[in-house]
Amino acid sequence: MKKFLLVSLLAVGASSAFAVELVVNGGFEPDATGWTIAHLGSFSGVTTTPNSTNWVPHTGAYCFHMGATSSTDQSDVFQDIATTVGTTYTVSVWALDLNPADATAGFNATFGGTTFAARGPSLTSAYTQFSANIVATSALTRLEFTGYEATQYIQVDDFSVQAQAVPEPASMAALGLGVVALLRRRRKA
To answer: Which 8-state DSSP code applies to residue 27?
Structure first.
């Protein structure tokens, strides 16, 4: 019976261990393929590791930097992702602001219109991960980010959207049977 319980637990764990990445090119390697650029603000775009302290990607060799000097010129980049209505998705991005003290800057990232990352006290000069669990309300959900930084750059990298795994009914039934069998065995002993 213990073996059955162990196999049941492994089956449930295996069904949730392999989340599928839904964002195409979330790390901008080596360009913005997969993304739609509604507006590319001035001094903005995909860049590689430079020979200075600016534009350092979180991972890989590329990141997206936003250096437009005003909100009227801010970058606006998005990707429409196929989703299932009612399913919860874990959405995340890594971002930094090279001059977090600058009051003339803005950054916002949304999934289906719900903000999960924004410029504020938590956006510092070191990469910070912003993450949220968001329920899809349509079959096509927009992942979008906008931003500008008057004196330096805001950088984003490693966008991710993954459906939260829900164990299959058969896996849950096997787990339940294993627990019941273990409890019955303990009562007999």
So the answer is: T
